[in-house]
Design goal:
The protein has 12 helices and 5 strands. The protein is α+β, with helices and mostly antiparallel strands. Among the domains are: 120 residues, no CATH class; 54 residues, no CATH class. It has a 5-stranded antiparallel β-sheet, sandwiched between helices. Helix 2 runs parallel beside helix 8. About 3% of the residues have low confidence. Pfam families: TPR_9, Transglut_core2. InterPro entries: SirB1_N (IPR032698).
């Protein structure tokens, strides 16, 4: 096991370069999911250099090259992916993976063949896409899966043309009932058609960063990880304004009182246009942070 503790971050210069590339890719016409996820990994792990980034892309290409040529139907694609990735290479997830930061880093998931549902789904998506499969991500509440077939919409015809698979479970092909059980287990809610809509690459990356922030939030000693995850999320073209508030509070928590207070005041300005009461509360937090400087 290489990392009993989270990996060491890159140098400030390397980090600045990675963030520049992440922002550029996120704002490109067709953002590349693998590239974005690998840049997240490089921000987490200072040992992931350019050769390592290239090697991860080559590995995705290699896996795609081992799929049979154009299986045909969505179900045949699903079975081919399950046989290759789930059975032959053993990609899957277990509950303990939720406790590890590596489970959110694509290069580590390719190495360990284990990870969170969303990162295993990224492997399925990228391998299938490279092989020419009609594939898309499906962000079910609490559990990310992969769809094969024509994306949903009025022109797509019957549901028979689409198959859902669960990479966390080794690529098991899901029946409609299985998907309902996954959603009910995660949220207690009913499965709605809108939940089966394809997830855009930037939405997938945003959810990956949310998972990293949640991991760090449960571990106050990992606040630096939470901070870079917020910083990357803020580089995505669409992000919640509240992320700025979260970042400011994290700076205060880390003892960076002046910087945190400044960001709280800036957030209060923005929020004041909508809700004066909340803005006042945030200004109060900023004053409290400044008081810690004395």
């Amino acid at each position: 096991m290489r990392h009993p503790h989270p990996p060491q971050p890159p140098s400030p210069e390397r980090s600045a370069e990675l963030r520049r590339r992440f922002a550029e890719e996120a704002r490109s016409e067709r953002p590349d999911l693998a590239t974005l996820c690998l840049l997240v990994g490089a921000e987490a792990d200072g040992t992931l250099d350019e050769a390592g980034l290239d090697a991860a892309q080559v590995e995705l290409d290699r896996l795609a090259g081992q799929l049979p040529f154009r299986p045909g139907t969505p179900r045949a694609w699903a079975v081919a992916l399950r046989d290759l990735l789930g059975e032959r290479y053993g990609f899957h997830g277990v509950a303990a993976d939720y406790q590890r930061l590596e489970s959110s880093l694509l290069h580590e998931v390719l190495r360990r063949r284990r990870g969170l549902p969303i990162l295993l789904s990224v492997v399925w998506l990228e391998v299938a896409r490279r092989a020419g499969a009609p594939v898309y991500g499906v962000a079910l509440p609490g559990h990310f899966v992969v769809g094969l077939g024509t994306e949903s919409g009025p022109e797509s015809g019957s549901l028979e043309e689409r198959v859902l698979v669960d990479p966390f479970d080794g690529g098991r092909v899901l029946s409609g009932q299985d998907a309902e059980v996954l959603v009910a287990g995660a949220t207690g809610a009913e499965l709605r058609a809108s939940m089966l809509e394809p997830a855009a690459p930037l939405d997938v990356v945003s959810r990956v960063l949310n998972n990293i922030r949640a991991w760090a939030a449960r571990r106050p000693e990992q606040s630096a990880v939470g901070l870079w995850a917020i910083d990357l999320a803020l580089l995505l073209p669409a992000h919640a304004a509240r992320l700025r508030y979260e970042r400011a509070r994290l700076l205060v928590q880390r003892g960076e009182f002046a910087a945190g207070a400044g960001e709280l005041e800036a957030y209060a300005e923005v929020v004041g246009a909508v809700d004066q009461a909340v803005a006042e509360e945030v200004r109060g937090e900023a004053r409290a942070a400044r008081a810690m400087l004395n």
